[in-house]
Amino acid sequence: MNNINSASSGNIFLGTYTTSADNVKKNDTLAYNTACDSVTLSHNQNNLPPDPKNCPKIFGMVGTAIGAAVGKAALPLATGITVAAAFTATLAGPIAIAGAALLGLVGGALAEKYTASGTLAGGIAGAGAGYIAGKVAEKLGHIPTEKYSAIAQKFDFEDIPSKIKSSISDELKGLSGEQQNEILTKIKPGDILVTEGDGLASVFINTGQKLLGVTGNWLHGAMVGESGTILEMRQTGYQEVPIDNLFAQEDHIMILRPEYKSEENVKDTLAAMRENKNAKYDFALNLQSDEKLYCTELIYKSLKKGAPDINVDESKSFGRNYVLAQDFLNSPDINVVYSTGSQLYVNELKKLTEEK
User: Fold this and answer.
1) How many C-beta atoms surround the C-beta of residue 230 within 10 A?
2) 352 contacts: CB under 8 Å, gap ≥ 6
3) 216: how many CB neighbours lie within 10 A of its CB?
4) What is the tens place of the pLDDT at every residue in 230-251?
5) Are strands 292-293 and 280-281 parallel, antiparallel or unpaired?
6) Which of 69, 211, 284, 333 is the most buried (most CB within 10 A)?
């Protein structure tokens, strides 16, 4: 049997044989059987066609992922607010109220960790909202992309609870040994590492970045030090640790190399990073203050001090300036050396459809 792949609509010529194939679609297969002198057409059923009728399923899948990410954060926050409100009603002092809010927040976080109830509730609610939005899109004749049509092929609304629980267990698997070895052969002191971990927490944070107008999926930044270490600012504060720590925490990584003018620039930049070892994490993302710093702010300000020729433009949103991972990628003075690639949202959606 001779196969002709990737046929297109119209007349298909098979030697001296001709068949009218107006219903041939992309990636279909035409097979000519010499034994019985016949041509058969088989449709590729692996992907949902990009048809408006598939919008409810695709939008439901996306809504599930977004709802699960919101629900993951909502339970601890709601618990903290509820406990604080209860203490407020008793006319407790501000310190007691703050302590109660913190206790509620921690309690909610532990409840979410062990029960995933917020994630499940958010995912189910998001699925419903997505389905409704998809029906509206279907009525409007929206044509979904082939990429999301393909991912949604195996999505089933009835499997949402089991898929969400399964996706939670898959979070933060870390980089493969092959990826780690390749990274170790390429990095140099002074390189910037921008990273991202798969998981609903990353989806939640990245969605917040999108609301600020930030493109790309990269969430964290660190700088390579000497002897296989990294210098970084985490929520717990500044740390200088072996790069293996980063490998275990992140799923995707990109190596960026500033165009330093000299080795002195590299040394001065690393020294500037270490000068901030007593700084606290800046949860407010206030670029104007040096007392508290967030991860990419520490790198940005250290570059300005140690290698002032490296130009990194600040982003602006809602009247405030920020420096996030994508701003390093946009700099004409910083080059990409290596990347594992990053498809945060696509990766998370696939977890809702893949068989275990």
Assistant:
1) 20
2) 61, 64, 65, 155, 160, 163, 164, 167
3) 19
4) 999 988 899 999 998 888 877 7
5) parallel
6) 69
Least confident stretch, 1-10, 192-201, 262-271, 283-292: 1-10
Domains of the chain, each with CATH number or no CATH: 2-42 (no CATH), 52-169 (no CATH), 177-344 (3.90.1720.10)
Tell me the C-alpha distance between 99 and 243, whole Å: 36
Closest alpha carbon to 194 in 78, 321, 338, 315? 338
Contact yes or no for 181/322 (Cβ under 8 A): no
Decide: helix, strand or coil at residue 233. Answer: strand
Share of the chain above pLDDT 70, in %: 61
CA-to-CA distance for 256 and 191, rounded, in angstroms? 6
Q: Are 323 and 349 in contact (CB under 8 A)?
A: no
- Which of 128, 147, 145, 160 lies closest to 56, judged by CA? 128
- Classify residue 318 by burial, with Cβ atoms within 10 Å: 0-12, 13-18, 19+: exposed
- Rounded to whole angstroms, the Cα distance separating 155 from 353 reads 5
Nearest residue to 300 via CA among 322, 278, 318: 322
Residue 176 token pair: 């493969």
Q: Which one, of 303, 295, 294, lies nearest residue 272 by Cα?
A: 303
Q: Residues 25, 19: contact at Cβ < 8 Å?
A: no
**Please, are residues 202 and 219 in contact by the beta-carbon 8 Å criterion?**
yes
Most confident range (mean pLDDT) of 13-17, 32-36, 215-219 is 215-219
Taking the C-alpha atoms of residue 306 and residue 314, their distance in angstroms, rounded to an integer, is 18
Q: What is the spatial distance between Cα 211 and Cα 226, in angstroms, rounded to a whole number?
A: 36
Please give the full DSSP string across 52-103, using - where no structure is assigned.
GGGHHHHHHHHHHHHHHHHHHHHHHHHHHHHHHHHHHHTT--HHHHHHHHHH
Output the CA angle 298-301-303, nearest 5 degrees: 105
Residue 337 sits at φ, ψ, to 5 deg, of -100, -35
